[in-house]
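To whoever is covering the structure queue this week,

Two jobs came back overnight. Logging them here so there's a record in the thread.

Job A:
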Amino acid sequence: MTAFVVIDHVDQVFPLPNGQSYIALKNINLEIRKGEFVSLLGHSGCGKSTLLNIIAGLAQPAAGGVLLEGRQVTKPGPDRMVVFQNYSLLPWLTVRQNIALAVDEVMKHLPAQERRDIVEQHIDMVKLRQAADKTPGKLSGGMKQRVSIARALAIRPKLLLLDEPFGALDALTRSGLQDQLIQIAQEHHLTCIMVTHDVDEALLLSDRIVMLTNGPESYIGQIIDVPFERPRERMAVVNHPNYYALRSEIVYFLNQQKRAKQRKVKQAAIARNGLEKINLEIGFVPLTDCAPLVVAREMGFFQKHGLEEVTLSREPSWKAIAEGVTSKRLDAAQMVAGMPLALTLGMGGKAPTPVVTGVVLSRNGNAISLSKRLYDEGVRNLADLKGALAAAPDRVHTMATVHPASMHNLILRYWLASADIDPDHDMHLTVIPPPQMVATLKAGNIDGFCAGEPWNTHAIKENIGFVIAHDLDLWIGHPEKVLGVREDWANQYPQTHLALVKALLEACEYCDDRRNRPQIAELLAKPEYVGAELEYIRAGFLDPYDRGDGKPPEQLLRFNQFHIDITNCPNRAEGLWILTQLARWGITPFPRNWIEILDRVRRMDVYGEAARQLDFPDLEPNREPFALFDGTVFDPDDPIGYLNSLRIKREIRIEEIDIDHPAIVVAA
């Protein structure tokens, strides 16, 4: 069904007296169907009314826009009527005259008698016949609000906007008006958007509840589908078996936001002006996609942004990277995408170490390689691999990945499970540092591995392996490497952190200009960086990619992706998918407070500020369902339902993770 209202990537920014600006709303993207009732819910200051004013045309967004039936909203109009909390009635006019004022203005083309009939009809609709000739001063608060609703509906708007319409009323009056609004909305198939603080009101009235996070940079944190059938009655809603579960989920979201607000106040006091630290030690693992770090150092981007001396520390493994950052030996590091989340949650039974990422450094770049022995046995695809496993039940087949929280591990497991191969029961998975993959495969200690380049190409060139699948077969554009720093480091050195992200953003842009790739490949081949043969590094990075399966090499323009198509955004929906996979395989619990965890780890505020200062776009991709190669849909509004739907998984632990007080773990 075509959307009736489209809120398209709306930002709202307000100037501050000190010359700076306040970003109230960030990347609000929402579609509303005709006849739908949507509530906007969140704490005070989250931008609910600001968004409603933009939809009404009372304010213009700083970016993005609103479409109503395909036409852009640029100013107020009678097709959108707003019901305010303060009634907005003219005190010297009667009920009838207040309603008639709107009808006569908007419907001048109708005969006078027809306009009078419309006024009387709406007086009866809100049950105010006996008060029709009274002025507002002689009406109760509930009656005034009914006049306001009647006036709005009398001009037959396409969209009814309600800004906390019942917030100032007593409980009894409020419930009566809510019931009346339900009846009117159902009878007239109204499309409504309502701002509210009241959880029960939202559940009673809404088809969907859109929950906004705290400002600044408020965004849609979660959308709740309300499953109660219409026509809707209050007691039927309250007695519905899902009512209290939904209510609990909404209250939980609001409590997360309350905690986040308290924490941000503490952090703001720590920040200081200027670059607090200019000499940095940054860790990396020798892989082709460490290119942004190498480029930032060699091309002077670090120095450009005030980081005078940056040492790149070549680490032997991702385990060493994690140790270096958590022990404070390293200021920052290139990390596999899931590592900041896993460390923050306390992977492997260790105490949580909050780690944040303000930029994705690369996407794609991995492949699943199998031994040439399996190729010689006829294995060409996943179905063949399953057959080979079934044909040798007494043999333990071993696959290697680079780290439990890496996309290599998570996607390899996903790929196997899609064919009903249990990666822990039907195979043996082990962790090996990337530079050791080829030697271990050559020794016959593993049957294959999932790793980044140049190690797959190295195995092919030595004629000991072939690529059965690569990232562009499995999940095009998945996050691969990120910048990771400890949260306390980011709080202590906020301007240094921002400068580091800016330098790496510019380096990423440089890496995705293919005219620069020959030069970058030669830099990567140096022994202090990747230290591999130049032809191995160029495969996929610059030259056509050879799978080692006898077919002609393919030109894969996005095999290594560093900047295009919002590569660098630490997308929270992708982070949420990673959290589900970490929980799926028992690597970490799934955090019941996932919105709070994602906000702390995947720092959209840092990324956005860095991007804006560089005049780069700072949009976050649409928060909408997506699927990998097998077509299984991941809905970011229902991660637990997604987890429960997966056939092969370990026992799922769902816990509230209090990373500020790690001894406190609350099972959900």
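Job B:
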Amino acid sequence: MITPTTKAERVPPSAQTEEPPSDGAGRPARRGPLSLLVLGALLALLALMAVHISQGTATVGLHTLWRAFATLWTGNDGAGQADAVLVASRLPRLAAGLVVGCTLGTAGAALQSVSRNVLASPDTLAVNAGAYLAVVAVAAFGITLPALPAGGTALIGGLLAAGIVLGLARAGAGPTRLVLAGSALMLGLSGLSQMLLLLRPQQTTGLYAWGNGSVAQIGMETIDQLAPVALLALAGLIALGRRLDILALGDDGAAVVGVSPRLTRTIVVILAVVLSAVAVTVAGPIGFVGLCAPAIVRLAGGRVPELLRHRVFLPASAVAGVLVVLGADVLLRALFGAQAGATVPTGIVTSFLGAVVLVVLAYRSRDAGAAGSEAAFARLRGRRAFVVTLVAVAGALVTAVVASTLLGDAPLLLGDVANWLMGRSGTFVSFVLDTRMPRIAAALLAGAALAVAGTVVQAVSRNPLAEPGILGVVGGAGVGAVITLTAIPLASFWLVGGSALAGAAAAAVLVFGLAARRGLEQNRLVLIGIGVSAGAAALVSLLIVLTDPYNGTKALTWLSGSTYGRSFPEVLPVLGALAVALPILAVRRRELDLIGLDADTPRLLGIRLGTTRLGLLVIAVVLTAAAVAAVGVIGFVGLVAPHAARAAVGQRHGRVLPVAALMGALLVVVADTVGRTVIAPAQIPVGIVTAVIGAPYFGWLLWRSNSGR
């Protein structure tokens, strides 16, 4: 359970009563600070709106602005070009910023209140991802919907995602699990969305940029139809403010005074998802506004406690959300120019800012419980079980490699492979196998490397939910590689690999450095890693949008995790990393066992905990960077394979490491085979397939650890 430590966070918004606050002597507290704060916020909002509407490729003065407003009210068709720009583009963009900021800020505040978790938001609970997938799924089948039906579709997707996440959280007691389940589901739903974008490129044209969240609008039609829906949902949440105040006292206390906790939570979640659906329909999934806005209000609430009552807290979060969205849009166009501001999604800036807020909140929080016990996932197993599992997994891997060799857009026979091995195959067979076999080798070695890295990270952090992807190491490697791919189009594989290693190392230093000061083994490590991953994803999206389309396509393919076009020399670094790492880890398997137990036992046995952890983490980072350089970004392998290995052979790392390596290789080989055969000759990147497979497994792990099964 994550409990905040700041003064504002120690006083939950809903803990306030309807009685006027006092100064400690029984006299009502002065309303001056609240009034000044409201006045300051309104002045800041007006100033920001003025700056926002003045930005663009054309100069706009006050006279032009006044004529544009007159055009809106009178419907005059004789306006000039500058007026037309304002009416058709700038005013709708400003209105979209107002609607999106208001809806997401309020939705985040409501979700945080019902989950009692300051890290909850429409992003971390996968509401935006579910709404986005629903919109993409409809568009993929060539269906064009008006604003209200499109909003209803997004609402259905968001509600389904919220229902899954809340269902997982209900299996256990820790609110932090809500964030973890939402983040895992978000990755899985994003993978499905990317798959649809790749499978139906003509029907979903433009949805990738929209998927990063952009307030750019042409006309007011969508906003006019959805703004009343947002106002009704906002009014409903404010009307429930007193119930939310009472709910913060605890479920038992709320029930005593006649407030149904379940009914209240259900209504609040539905209204919050309605607001999120409106925002997604208008501007796409703009990230982390629902996290930043309530955090800003809570920070101000440390000095003005009146802000923490829900009937004030919710509208204040709406205003803060507007300030975040408009501020991000103004900052975007100020940094990159008006022309780039038209193409770079606003959600990239808000996602980066939100990632910073998430890291800060996770770092400053107190952890009242471990992420889960390894014992929940691993029973004692005998040597016989280990041998049987090892043989079975090795046999399955051989079968998968053979099937991957024979299957594809050009099916082959075993005789063709035999002739190729002896140098007697024809031109066609030689061409097919010369391109297919390096891909299989890359998938096999990268899967093994990621699985071994995940095993080490989980042992060092004593966190069964940790893995290189969730902890931001893969995201850091992605940033390093994409910087090189976009800046140097003809960069060699070795330069890209070196950049990936540097990025992975930087991310590892940041995540583990922050988490180590407060307890490396706790949930904080995962939450900080999720924040760093989100920040890395925002930076990558920014680089892709700003770069040449050809370089952007290369970067997107690489980010999706692909073995396409690999050669045998390019997989040698992964082979070398495994050849060095596995013997070292085999020698240090006892240290891995001891470090995974607790912090005191290794010290009592003479193990230098800090030095040992650092050395093991260096091995994990090198393995991750080598795998990412070879096949791109592939998630969840470092989580699924170690857990499956522990469930089969127990906790001893001398047995877990080889089995996990084989299982990781098996998973990526199968995912690569599926990706290049189900829609041959087109292909689905292997990273998308593993995300779709790994997200449900991660959710199952959360449910299992919570229920103690």
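Note for Job B: Residues 1-29, 171-175, 368-378 have pLDDT under 50 and may be disordered.

Please reply-all if you pick these up so we don't duplicate work.
Q.
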